[in-house]
Amino acid sequence: MKILVGIKQVPDTETKIKIAADGVSIDESGIKWVISPYDEYAIEQALQWRDVAGGEVLLAGAGRQSVQTALRQGLAMGADRAILIKDERYDRADGLARARALAELVRAEAIDLVLLGKYGVGFDEAQTGPMLAEVLSWPHASAVSKATIENGSFHVERAVEGAVEIQEGTLPAVLTCEKGLNEPRLPSLKGIMQSKKKPIDVKTPEELGLSTAELGDGRRLVWETLELPPQRGAGQRIDGDAQQAARELARLLREEAKVI
């Protein structure tokens, strides 16, 4: 089975984000770039299925040259090879542009299954997976927390509003992965050394037959401004016994917060 895992390079979730002087991007000085955490669940699941059924795990990322760092991290986990669609405009591309790029790779590589994280941390759009499935006309399931594949079919579970939804379908398919699906492995020293010898093919959008208009003047998503969320105000402490505190809390919620 040939599995494609789409990954996105994002700032480490512990990084303190600052807005750059242009007001539409982040200040990248001092930022540590990593694989989007949900993509690690996708990589781990692909590796587990490959180890059982055989085949190949191919990683794909789109963006600037530095995305190779994240691809190397995935190769160190155990993926077989990687492809970078090199164009820095993918850093701000919408989900459909990314889906179309992945779709061209799926067709060129004769992929049987695509795994993605449920969304790229930072954008949190959760659009690329469903859009890719629509472009390919493949079955799709999002944010799966349990999955099995047998005899060319998939059986997955996903959390929905306090319940568990079960979905089934046939391969080829697109699945996006949620926390809890597995426990991603850490790259071993051997894996890190081996990853340096594994190939990363660099392709331009044009080489894949993609139109770059949607990445330039014809794109649907334009960043106009970027702002940090407002700082929270200081909390208020209510003294007194339990009954007094409860009455005062109710008064504040009614008269000041006006939520009751």
In short:
This protein has helices spanning 37-53, 68-77, 95-109, 128-136, 189-195, 242-256, and strands at 2-6, 9-11, 33-35, 56-63, 81-86, 113-117, 140-144, 146-150, 153-160, 163-170, 173-177, 200-203. It is of the alpha/beta class and 260 residues long.
Low confidence ranges: none
- The dominant shape is globular
Question: How do the strands line up in the largest sheet?
Answer: 7-11-6-1-4-5-12
Order of helices and strands: EEEHEHEHEHEEEEEHEH
CATH-derived architecture of the largest domain? 3-Layer(aba) Sandwich
Number of domains as seen in the coordinates: 2
* CATH superfamily membership of the largest domain: HUPs
Write the layout of secondary structure elements.
Elements: E1 2-6, E2 9-11, E3 33-35, H1 37-53, E4 56-63, H2 68-77, E5 81-86, H3 95-109, E6 113-117, H4 128-136, E7 140-144, E8 146-150, E9 153-160, E10 163-170, E11 173-177, H5 189-195, E12 200-203, H6 242-256
Parallel strand pairs: 1-4, 1-6, 4-5, 5-12, 6-11, 7-11
Antiparallel strand pairs: 2-3, 8-9, 9-10
